[in-house]
Amino acid sequence: MTGLLQDVRFALRQLRKNPGFMVTATVMLAVAICANSTVLSWIDGTMLHPIPGARNTGDLVSLMRGEPNPSPVPPLSYPDYRDMREQNHSFSGILAYNHDWLSITGGAQPERVYVANVSSNFFDVLGVKPWLGRFFRPEEETRPDAVPLVILSYSLWQNRYAGDPGIVGRSIEIAKHPVTVIGVAPEGFIGAMPGIRQDLWLTLNPIGTNAYRMTHRRANFLNILGRLKPGVTREAANQDLETIMRRIVAAYPDDHLGVNTITLDPMWRSPFGANGYMAATLPILLAIAGVVLVLTCANVATLTLVRFVARRREIAIRQSLGAQRFQLVRQMVLEGMVLAAAAGAAALLLTSWTAKTFALFIPPTSNPIVLNGILDQNVIIGIVALAIAASMLCGAFPAWRSSKVPAAEVLKDEAASISGGSRNRHLLSGLVVVQIALSLALLVCSGLFLQTLRNLAGAYPGFEQEHVLTASVGLNMAGYSNEDAKVIRHKILDRLAALPGVSVASLTDWLPMSFTRKTADAYPQGYAPKPHDSLEVRRADITPRYFETLGIPFVEGRDFTLADDEKAPKVLIIDETTAKHYWPGQDPVGKKLTLWNHTLFTVVGVVRNSKHQFLKEDLEPMVYMSYFQSADNETIFQVKTKGNPAEMAPAVEEAIRGVDRGIPVFDVRTMRETTQMARIFAVMQSTFAGMFAVVALILAATGIYGVVAYRTQLRTHEIGVRIALGASRADVLKLVLLQGLWLTVIGLTLGLALAFALTRLIGDLLYGVSAYDPSTVLGVVVVLGAMSLIACYLPAQRAMRADPVAAIREQ
User: Fold this and answer.
1) Is 110 inside any structural domain?
2) Residue 129, Cα to own-chain centre: how many angstroms?
3) What span, in angstroms and rounded, lies between the C-alpha atoms of 56 and 49?
4) Last residue of a domain, one of 663, 679, 695
5) What is the mean pLDDT for each group of 10 consecutive residues in the chain (811 residues)?
6) Where is the ABC3 transporter permease C-terminal domain (predicted)?
7) What is the DSSP-derived secondary structure letter of residue 347?
8) Kind and range of the H or E element at 486?
9) pLDDT of 435
10) N or C: which end of the chain has fewer CB within 10 A?
């Protein structure tokens, strides 16, 4: 132990002799380790702990009807869910939930909150215990005649009710309906929808629910999670549920047309939430961070090897005095470990901040998205492992190579003590080649991601983005009944349409590419479902002139009119995808279609396709219903402006409040802002890759400069002699440049092979650009080549100034 402490003190003394190297190496390693630990913290927070506060989330699975789908639909009706819960043999519990926006209307200020309607076993299956009070009991799951019961989130309890312990048993108002608080969820628990914060939990007989969806098997509105029994695999559980589903389909065939297969996903990949969308992006970011760490280690290893080579005479003297090679290696390795330990500690401090930066990538959205990393023991272990790996790459490897010193030769020949031998020169060259190759691969990937972001920003989603402003209104918060709300909506529409600068105003309950999804089961007359054919369609309630507001043209048929109200025959407008899917080669206008509530609709128009959620998505059937033929629905006003829509925001808000000052107005955004959510992954990829591509470029430049400068310094006497013997300065320039550019050519060649291998892996993440885009590859090669030329020219310029007289005198 005494010897080890002496070696540590010796390592610290050696590092203090060269503070520039110590600070530079520590900072570079700290940044590289922090990049990796930050992504690890994001993975830990979003994928390894998808439901904060839940017990053993690895045993939880989400259930989806149909094949794996990044944009799925709620899989089950309540009767189907009840049968699966009671008949399965694979789960210790299966829970169900649905979610929506509601408002707390009691008190001085109404508050809009995200609410989940849940099965009575919701908290038990998740393994969550109440902070205060209790959770739901089985007999309370469906009580349509009773006062609804509610559970508050810890944050809502603290923020709205000041943490009042007497809240349990109190009656509060939700959407002007009395509900009874029976408990408070534990701190940190945000619900079962990964990445989406919920603040209230009601039973499955929510406020304003019609009895239809609690009794009919066509009303598929429930998201399902299950906890596997010990020893049961997802595959076995999947077969169990499909057996039950086949029995249900056989018993109720008319209610189960189309797809009825079951898919189970682990919670980290659950499509019902925000986390599932990160499953493809985060591993790519981790790979990018890993490349940066390897690059940094190669750069620091180069600097370390140069230091150790410069100390060959010292090492030779110590060997001649009896020091064993392993003792010398241990001392040199400890220098690398000290650097890595300091870098790891700095990375830990940095990660405590950067782990929370995930939210910076998330644009404004109507959903309460909560995506952040966590700094727990998993991440700390990761930082320690990365620091150890860095110490091995930066310290152990160079130490082992440079400790093999022929003592007699070095002590006899001063030049040998400086040059370090051809093996170390080859190793330095190899490290530079690795840096150039990795830099090229990273720069190519970064360029492709930047191209993707540019293409997404300029892509046309099928609707107007630049001159549309939207505003959501909470009429239920203001206490309006359904009948009064209809009158108010008409008044607001008239006021908005009359505003100077507004050309069209309309109303909807859904915005495209807004990270929300509304669906219904559709049963077209005369359509025979194919095997594995889904009858789910996207839907939206809209008013007349909605398509004019968004610039979506009609293919045939007509728009809705004010006469298409609840007293008129039910009508639909569909998009081209729906028409081709259900009635290929036919005129869809006049066709009949029954939706999940057994209501028969007539198609009166067909519009062009537009994107629903993502620019890269496969188009799904979409139906539009008349807003005035629906019951209670969300209220989102849209105006098409003649100028900058953002400048119209104050006037739009004032027009709405001019009808009633008590109406809450929220989420006032341009359509361009709303659609930013569809670009979040491209923004993350391009930002992260671009940032570290710059770092990689700098590392590669410093690496090649350092090695060429070092090797040029070793040949200073030779160059002076060459000049004395008649070599021109151009000859010297050529000699040094070729020395560095040859390494560059090898690095670029290997880098191209690596880049083409990596771009195949990211092909699915690109948009509008080939994984082998020649302009991107050529641009990167030119940039790296120019950088290498500059890095080689600087030491060459110094070499050209070598004094031949001094060189000859030295010889």
Assistant:
1) yes
2) 30
3) 9
4) 679
5) 63 70 85 92 86 90 73 73 94 92 76 90 96 92 78 95 93 86 94 89 72 78 93 94 91 78 84 74 86 87 72 61 60 77 92 84 71 85 92 72 52 46 67 87 88 84 92 79 86 94 94 81 80 79 96 96 92 95 92 82 96 83 92 84 93 91 86 81 79 81 76 69 72 76 88 88 84 90 87 76 62 51
6) 287-406, 691-804
7) H
8) helix 482-497
9) 85
10) N
The reply to whether 439 falls in a domain is no
pLDDT for position 411: 45
* 219 and 315, same domain (yes or no): no
Length of the chain in terms of residues written: 811
Q: Is residue 489 domain-shared with residue 519, that is, in the same domain?
A: yes
Residue 673 lies in a domain: yes
For residues 573 and 607, the answer to whether their CB atoms sit within 8 Å is yes
Q: Give the CA dihedral 609, 615, 618, 620, nearest 10 degrees.
A: -40
Report yes or no: 501 and 468 within 8 Å, Cβ to Cβ.
no
Q: DSSP assignment of 273-331, as one string?
A: SSGGGGTTHHHHHHHHHHHHHHHHHHHHHHHHHHHHHHTHHHHHHHHHTT--HHHHHHH
Helix (H, G, I), strand (E, B), or coil: what is residue 343?
A: helix
Which residues is 557 bridged to in the sheet?
605
Pairing of strands 519-524, 571-575: unpaired
Amino acid residing at 55: R
Q: Are 262 and 241 in contact (CB under 8 A)?
A: yes
- The rounded distance, in Å, linking the Cα atoms of 800 and 181 is 84
Domain total in the chain: 3
247: containing domain: 57-269
Regarding whether 23 and 68 lie in a shared domain, the answer is no
Residues 597 and 670 in one domain: yes
Buried b (16+ CB within 10 A) or exposed e, 117-142: bbbbbbbbbbbbebbbbebbeeebbb
Distance of alpha carbon 100 from alpha carbon 201, whole angstroms: 11
Strand partners, 695: none
Q: Are 708 and 643 in contact (CB under 8 A)?
A: no
Rounded Cα–Cα distance for residues 800 and 788 (Å): 18
Based on the domain organization, do 152 and 298 belong to the same domain? no
Residues 6+ apart with CB under 8 A from 379: 37, 40, 41, 44, 351, 355, 373
